[in-house]
Amino acid sequence: MPIPSKTPNLISARPRIAVLLGDPGGIGPEMAVKLLARQRNLDAARVLLIADPVVLAAGERAAGMKLDPLRVEGFDDLRFEDGRPTLLPRDWMQGREPVLGESNAASGRASFEALELATAAVRRGQAEGIVFAPLNKHSLRLGGLVHEDELRYMQERFSVAGFVCEFNLTGSLWTSRVTSHIPLKDVASHITVEGVSDAVKIIASALHRAGVAQPRIAVTGLNPHAGDGGSIGMEEIEIIAPAIERLRAEGYDARGPFSPDTVFIGARRGDVDAVVSMYHDQGQIAMKLMGFEQGVTLHGGLPVPVATSASGSAFDIAGKGVARIEGLQQAFDLCVRMASGGPVRTLSSAEAAA
């Protein structure tokens, strides 16, 4: 849904992308620095870097690279120069160095405030997309997030009333899920016909936009062996199968329910374009095994593309300068293409690393 602009849009042939450093205590700052040190990225988009200068400097030290941003003090004087990121600085850390390798409230506040400014830039018509380096949800909650996750926070900020969902992309395979960041003990009670239907429809719409005329979508069961005819659970018979029947009657190529432990074998082979899983790890474990470093998370259902790498904050290697950025590069490229109205596709590992 469109967000009304509060200030005139800056005219640009390239989309304006807000880039965030992620959790200050993780690998996000060095990943973002490495991303923006690639000139091709600065040539592809006008980058608004929203960051605490202390955290940015820590990321530069870890990456062994120095950026040359154009500094502005606020949205009212926002401008861009070719080949340079524009830095909107904020003193969230109050001059203190980030503590690497752990979750804490200071890092969470910095991450959360950066998200708030990025969504404000979109609401003001001053950004067409958001890319963020890996966040840490525990830090975010310590820092003030009260929502299920950052997607639900942005859903509220953008006043989106419909279904939203994380998509995960590895190569040409997409996934969505019916439930996301909730305790496993609560999953079964959140599986509904409407929820399954929404998860299929939102990813079918995204794939159609990506150029897939009739997306083939596999739907998993909830229980082992997809319930084994009801002997291991009734959700497949009472909820998931009826949802698939309804979807097929509406013209969607939805298939299943498939046993969760085998569905990705055929998906990896190319039998389907997407898999809809019932809960977070049911799809995430398979996708990360298939392409962890190249994986992308795309927040579906928002008015602008919002993307990040599928990797986490990786506290164990924070500050060591060894974090790879193929996934974040994929996320940036995807966001730029979507924001500019171009075809949506993921890159090969070699393309993302170039």
UniProtKB/TrEMBL annotation:
InterPro entries: PdxA_fam. Keywords: Metal-binding, NAD, Oxidoreductase. It holds the Pfam family PdxA. It comes from the Bacteria. Signal peptide: none annotated. This is 4-hydroxythreonine-4-phosphate dehydrogenase.
